[in-house]
């Protein structure tokens, strides 16, 4: 059965907001796997590290599988140490997002995160031979490449995950763009990113909403929505569908995906509900169809 | 002291010969397809051109490095494998790679050819670099442009391979190999197709007052006043508005180029083996000017003289230059 | 004097138009010889043009009385002088001072740098312009010298004079 996963929170939500969020996810959301941990900014990690054991416990008691995700960017001493520490953990599982994590993990089992650039069967084969048990494909991959990669990963016994909801990570940098917008540097950012729990919107010179800034990360303005594409993803042997936490009712979002994937809800009804749940955010699926990522491509035939 | 090799861009055979004649220790180039990260229209080399270029470069004692530094999407690996086979057959001195699958293929199929780790692999820690060295026998890493000199010095102590750093040219802001900004607006991918703000999607529109808008796929990325210096139409160098910045500002970076000419002695002292000049998409005139200037500077430093670096400001984007992250971590 | 003023203003006038037409007629045999000779000596440039061999380019030297229409189709080369008011609708246009354009062709100047400084203006199909630039940049030697040499000593003398005039002119600008 196709599993639903909840990706790690990309934003700087307060410890309280996180703890409330995961309590609800544990009790109500029909997701199978939950990824925890700070992936974007190592400065934020201390704010929610203390809550982590309780959150893991809460989710596991509710029957969820918990996976800890490592940082996407590893450069500073504290980032190297954080990665090294996570790589030493035996349980829960870990998802690695930087080659520094692969180095520290060695051949012990691990998941490959979306920042690892597992674009093709040769790379996936290499990773599998080195202990990868599961791979999350890059969000910009088009359908034909997903199909080939998923088949290869499946044949090697790996789980295959694709993001199907939420803002897409478009870039990461060493520089903090939240700090820059407020005339600060990364070292004295004063955690101004906390003000934007769904990212800071950027508009182009002709006033079109275009990107979101989340600290060192740049995200899509639109929410990725591959709900109409899920039957094809499943047919192509994608085993896990990832929902990225946004400032919307994520329990309801997960329910819509679960019901649609299980055939309890027609695709058109499910898509209408998802659009309503997403509020003002535009939905997009361009990457999947080999088009500009921000675009919304209608399916050629109803499924 | 390290070798302080000068690694120079070659977008065409003529530019390659220009770089060789101007004193390049090595040139880097790519084929006319998605296998390299400067897959721009009318640029790069055919296999026949590469064959002749390798002969020319080697006759002058210059090495040729072939960039195979993009990420093959599943199902299309043969293009990359074939490019590697061709490069090996034509006698290139090293491959510059980013994808683990491509690196693994070359390590097995062409073990006699050196592997350099592209900046597109974004290996910014000793652990990441050691992963690639131990996995694929990488001999040199091209460091991301995000590290300070003390950080580079520290990395040098902890890795078993040579270090190459950029010293001049386009100042990439995003972690290379992790950027889908172009694909988000245009449908062409930097990682998979080797493009960045493809010319086919760029339009410059002159307004009545003499100002110019640069548009990418219909989005106005920037607007330059009549007397304002311009930059490339890349998303990371665009001007945007944000809730706190209604006036519009460079959210990521201004149009500016990297120029580390003043830091060369420190970089050599930190153990950097090779200096890379960005700009395969630039003209012979750029290649000639920049390579000559850095050749003279490196030779001066090696001879214990004070380097007198020529003014390269005119060739920089926005006609502004920066030492970026190399100088101070305040850049971050 | 500002270059941008030059790039942006092209006042037409009845007298100027007639002079422009005459200039076009006079220069045409020269242009035809230049383009055919270049094509014969540098056939590789057509490969770099790719699909834009059949694109119409307007090359607009702002201080000359006419613009140039280029269609680098190896089957039917077009390179002709046209009065600005009668210029055809082209796929791409490149504007700048004549000697700057000449130096770009000869790789004496960097096109990106000229673009950054706003001395060079590009409109229309950007890919066509990039391909033309890359095609020309892959030519070894100097097209200007080759062309001047076609006209012997007087041609070379004229080119040298043009260059001196341009150098003096741009030096003047830097002082402003």
Automatic annotation (TrEMBL), chain B:
Annotated pathway: Cofactor biosynthesis; ubiquinone biosynthesis
Protein family per UniProt: Belongs to the peptidase U32 family. UbiU subfamily.
GO terms under biological process: ubiquinone biosynthetic process
InterPro entries listed in its UniProt record: Peptidase_U32 (IPR001539), RNA/ubiquinone_mod_enzymes (IPR051454), UbiU (IPR043692)
Protein name: Ubiquinone biosynthesis protein UbiU
Keywords tagged on the record: Ubiquinone biosynthesis
Lineage: Bacteria, Pseudomonadati, Pseudomonadota, Alphaproteobacteria, Rhodobacterales
One of the Pfam families matching this protein, by short name: Peptidase_U32
Automatic annotation (TrEMBL), chain C:
The SCP2 domain, residue ranges: 67-137
One protein family per Pfam: SCP2
SUPFAM superfamilies attached to this UniProt entry: SCP-like
Domain of life according to the entry: Bacteria
Protein name: SCP2 domain-containing protein
Species: Celeribacter baekdonensis B30
């Amino acid at each position: 059965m196709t599993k639903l996963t909840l990706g790690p929170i990309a934003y700087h939500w307060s410890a309280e907001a996180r703890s409330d969020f995961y309590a609800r996810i544990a009790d109500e959301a029909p997701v199978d796997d939950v990824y925890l941990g700070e992936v974007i900014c190592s400065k934020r990690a201390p704010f929610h590290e203390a809550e982590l054991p309780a959150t893991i416990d809460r989710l596991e008691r509710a029957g969820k599988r918990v996976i800890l995700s490592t940082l996407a960017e590893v450069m500073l001493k504290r980032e190297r140490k954080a990665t090294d520490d996570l790589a030493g953990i035996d349980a829960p599982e870990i998802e690695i997002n930087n080659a520094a994590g692969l180095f520290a993990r060695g051949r012990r089992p691990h998941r490959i995160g979306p920042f690892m650039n597992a674009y093709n069967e040769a790379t996936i084969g290499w990773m599998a031979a080195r202990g990868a048990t599961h791979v999350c494909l890059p969000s910009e991959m088009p359908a034909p490449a997903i199909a080939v990669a998923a088949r290869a990963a499946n044949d090697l016994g790996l789980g295959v995950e694709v993001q199907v909801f939420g803002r897409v990570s478009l870039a990461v940098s060493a520089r903090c763009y939240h700090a820059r917008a407020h005339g600060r540097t990364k070292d004295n950012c004063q955690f101004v990113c906390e003000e934007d729990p769904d990212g800071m919107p950027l508009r182009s010179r002709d006033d079109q909403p275009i990107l979101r800034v989340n600290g060192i990360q740049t995200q899509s303005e639109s929410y990725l929505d591959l709900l109409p594409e899920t039957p094809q993803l499943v047919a192509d042997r994608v085993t896990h569908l990832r929902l990225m936490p946004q400032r919307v009712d994520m329990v309801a979002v997960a329910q819509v995906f679960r019901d649609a994937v299980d055939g309890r809800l027609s695709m058109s009804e499910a898509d209408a509900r998802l659009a309503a749940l997403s509020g003002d955010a535009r939905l997009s699926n361009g990457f999947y169809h080999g088009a500009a990522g921000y675009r919304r491509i209608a399916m050629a035939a109803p499924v | 002291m390290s070798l302080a090799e000068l690694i120079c861009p070659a977008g065409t055979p003529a530019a390659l010969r220009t770089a060789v004649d101007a004193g390049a220790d090595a040139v880097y180039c790519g084929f006319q397809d998605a296998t390299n990260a400067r897959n721009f229209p009318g640029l790069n080399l055919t296999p026949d051109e590469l064959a002749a270029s390798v002969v020319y470069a080697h006759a002058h004692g210059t090495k040729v490095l072939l960039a195979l530094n993009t990420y093959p999407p599943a199902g299309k690996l043969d293009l990359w494998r074939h490019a590697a086979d061709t490069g090996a057959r034509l006698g290139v001195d090293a491959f510059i790679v980013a994808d683990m699958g491509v690196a693994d293929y070359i390590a097995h199929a062409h073990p006699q050819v050196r592997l350099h780790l592209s900046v597109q692999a974004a290996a910014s820690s000793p652990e990441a670099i050691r992963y690639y060295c131990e996995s694929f026998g990488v001999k040199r890493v091209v460091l991301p442009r995000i590290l300070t000199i003390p950080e580079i010095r520290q990395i040098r102590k902890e890795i078993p391979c040579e270090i190459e750093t950029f010293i001049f040219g386009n100042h990439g802001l995003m972690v290379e190999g992790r950027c889908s900004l172009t694909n988000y607006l245009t449908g062409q991918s930097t990682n998979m197709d080797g493009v960045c703000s493809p010319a086919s999607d760029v339009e410059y529109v002159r307004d009545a007052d003499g100002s110019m808008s640069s548009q990418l796929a219909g989005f106005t990325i920037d607007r330059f006043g009549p007397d304002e210096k311009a930059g490339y139409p890349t998303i990371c160098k665009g001007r945007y508005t944000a809730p706190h910045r209604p006036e519009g500002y460079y959210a990521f970076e201004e149009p500016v180029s990297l120029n580390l000419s003043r830091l060369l002695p420190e970089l050599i002292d930190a153990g950097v083996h090779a200096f890379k000049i960005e700009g395969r998409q630039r003209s012979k005139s750029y290649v000639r000017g920049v390579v000559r200037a850095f050749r003279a500077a490196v030779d001066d430093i090696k001879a214990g003289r004070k380097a007198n670096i020529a003014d390269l400001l005119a060739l920089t984007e926005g006609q502004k230059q920066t030492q970026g992250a190399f100088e101070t971590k305040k850049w971050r | 004097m500002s270059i941008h003023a030059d790039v942006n203003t092209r006042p037409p006038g009845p007298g100027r138009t007639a002079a422009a037409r005459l200039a076009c007629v006079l220069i045409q045999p020269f242009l035809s010889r230049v383009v055919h000779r270049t094509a014969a000596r540098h056939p590789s440039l057509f490969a770099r043009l790719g699909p834009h061999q059949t694109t119409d380019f307007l090359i607009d030297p702002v201080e000359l009385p006419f613009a140039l229409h280029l269609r680098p189709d190896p089957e039917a080369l077009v390179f002709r002088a046209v009065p600005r008011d009668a210029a055809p609708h082209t796929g791409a246009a490149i504007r700048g001072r004549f000697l700057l354009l000449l130096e770009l062709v000869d790789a004496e100047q960097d096109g990106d740098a000229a673009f950054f400084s706003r001395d060079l203006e590009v409109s229309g199909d950007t890919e066509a312009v990039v391909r033309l630039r890359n095609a020309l940049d892959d030519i070894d030697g100097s097209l200007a010298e080759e062309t001047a040499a076609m006209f012997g000593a007087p041609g070379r003398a004229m080119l040298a004079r043009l260059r001196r005039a341009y150098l003096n002119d741009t030096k003047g600008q830097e002082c402003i």
